[in-house]
């Protein structure tokens, strides 16, 4: 059923935007609340780390599974399950009486969050088949996700100051339950035209790849890159990757066809998302330490200082959709890369001492870059794939964003820890000096986004996308690959 002809496009877009808004907010709002959580639950530093990691690892590991399941069993059905699990997990987190309970309930949230982002993007691709309308809808959708991530610290600071840390979880309930009711009543069901066989081995290999990889990225800066647990996780992830490529190449109906990565736009979109959201994750991480530890601001005041980032994201995300619809993905991607590069260069070049103005200006540039990048990157990831693989393609794109945030935090944290004196509580000048290498690492990620924005959007790149997307159909018809 065509949602654009039945008057369901508007409700579907509201549901999909609510889904990624909750996921985005939950990704960053909790960071501001961690000191209050630690005081009330008497949690260790490791316990607080796993409060964040349990959610991130579950989402990164199961996004691919959710996208594939939605293509096969029905996108509306999987989206409803995602809303229910995320809302239930949020309610349980708000009731947690110990660190162990909070970690377990965050995992329940992760089960729901893994379904919300990729499946909601597949729903948009289904209800908006027109290219221009789909581009604008994806612009609103990606803006909702980016705004949620960027505004999380501000909202978290307001909620913690006004009603305590549990309110960070309670705020998800009215949004989640309202979207659940609206989706149940107005969202059309859709699934892939071709019912592919369920790839159990492929799903397990993806989980074995992304789970340990995410663990290694997050824990390496704290445990050390040579820690046995980190090395073991990297070994498991590497083995899973080798096994996944070998197994999927031989399978007639693979979960992730390795040939898709021969598409320059698809592969470029994955790397662009990794780089851009690494900048966002690293910037928010360094910004939290700079504002609360180095400058001594309260959670609320620190949240107010982050306002330039979400405001710029809100302003630029619709612009990205319009540019994409009129001129293709290259202009918004190049502009995004330039904004992200400027946003990380400003604090990197500011030198030691007070750096308020460069930080605020850099926040605005990073927000503009995130607002501009996600629409064309998501478009590249989905547009180059066959329609019946939209769920998996969007899941790969969303996974890249999730892993990118964790990678940015890990890179920035490792660089900062290497430059700070052990056990010292740095002052403002000491912190800005020690943070220099971290800012330069993030600048490298931003420069990668800028260069790929020009390289993967030309005529030659589009030709590789056509060849890659036609290979699965040829194999299904018996044509050798």
List keywords for this structure.
18 helices; mainly alpha; 481 residues; disordered N terminus; disordered C terminus; 81% helix
Query: From the helix content, strand content and strand pairing, which structural class follows?
Result: mainly alpha
Mean pLDDT: 77
Multimeric state: single chain
Largest pleated sheet: none
Rg over alpha carbons: 21 Å
**DSSP strand tally:** 0
> In percent, how much strand structure appears in the residues?
under 5%
The coarse overall form would be globular
Poorly predicted sequence stretches spanning 5 or more consecutive residues: 1-6, 472-481
Structure notes:
- With 481 residues, the chain is mainly alpha-helical.
- It is 81% helix and 0% strand.
- The chain contains 18 helices and no strands.
- It has helices spanning 9-41, 45-73, 75-95, 99-127, 131-163, 167-170, 172-186, 200-223, 228-250, 264-294, 299-305, 308-327, 330-348, 356-383, 390-419, 428-434, 436-455, 459-476.
- The chain starts with 8 loop residues before the first helix and ends in a 5-residue tail after the last helix.
What is the topological layout?
Layout: H1 9-41, H2 45-73, H3 75-95, H4 99-127, H5 131-163, H6 167-170, H7 172-186, H8 200-223, H9 228-250, H10 264-294, H11 299-305, H12 308-327, H13 330-348, H14 356-383, H15 390-419, H16 428-434, H17 436-455, H18 459-476
Helix pairs in contact: 1-2, 1-4, 1-5, 1-7, 2-3, 2-4, 2-8, 2-15, 3-4, 3-7, 4-5, 4-15, 5-11, 5-12, 5-14, 8-9, 8-15, 10-14, 10-15, 10-17, 12-14, 13-14, 13-17, 14-15, 15-17
